[in-house]
Prior knowledge:
CATH topology of one domain: Chemotaxis protein chec
CATH architecture of one domain: 3-Layer(aba) Sandwich
Low-confidence stretches: none
CATH superfamily of one domain: Transcriptional regulator MraZ domain
Distance between the termini: 41 Å
Structural class: alpha+beta
Strand content: 15-25%
Number of strands: 8
Mean pLDDT: 93
Amino acid sequence: MTERVDYQGDGIGLVDDKGRCAIPVSLRAALAANSPRADGKEGGSVIIGVHESSPCLIGYDEGYRAVLKDRATAREAAYMAANGKHNPNFRREASQGEQVPFDGSGRFIMPAFPRFQAHIGANAFFFGTFDCFEIWDPRTLIEADVADVVKACARFHCQQKGIAL
């Protein structure tokens, strides 16, 4: 694979009662570049999991899975060196995620557990963070310890769609 494309961009998606939502085009373009389909058609797959420390989800491609695994391995090794025993929770947390397909319009079905864990209801705010992208319930984001510019971005997109916060 060539050099990875950074996930930069943002947007809001409406989530239907079955969890269907669309990835914003700016993020979808990076996802498609980082994990092109073998047949050359539009669409592909995305891995959706719970963020390790924030009340949101992350979306990423197959290449980033290896980064998460390497981080978990390093944390586990450091813990083992300091404590002389194994802690399986590092891998448990890092491996939580589900690979789901998305179509040429970026539509995918948000897995039920991650969606529940992040309190995502009818709206999902997407924000690129270079290596992956975050998916937030807009109200949860506004109340979280997150950079003001990200909160302003969420407010802007909600206002544009007529979503009351």
